[in-house]
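Protocol step 4 of 6: structure prediction from sequence.
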Amino acid sequence: MKNLLFALIVILLDVIAPPAGCGSCQHNDDSDEVSVSSSSINFTEDLGTRTIKVISNTKWTVVKDNQDWLTIVPMNGDGDKVISVTAALNTEGKSRYGEFLIKAGDASVKVTVGQSGRNP
């Protein structure tokens, strides 16, 4: 009788909480993912270049608006890749800030960039 009761409990638990990896479970392993090794970059007023790593499971593109003082190479890729971010010489007396997005399908990550200004 104990064995029958134990077998019924095991069957019931299997129905209520199916084991991981079951065929009827719905998993979305095909979702787009993107991340970066650093989401913030800072420069002195001098010309400078920093690198960050893009980590993605799909194709990605850099989206940048009106920051002519920033150059990013490459602007797109597929999978993991290192990109270079270059800030032009800042001859203004004030700091400047910008940002760009790295978009991979429905996923995106924002990187903020700051550069100090030249002292008069």
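Step 5 (inspection) to follow. Confidence is low (pLDDT under 50) at residues 2-8, 10-28.
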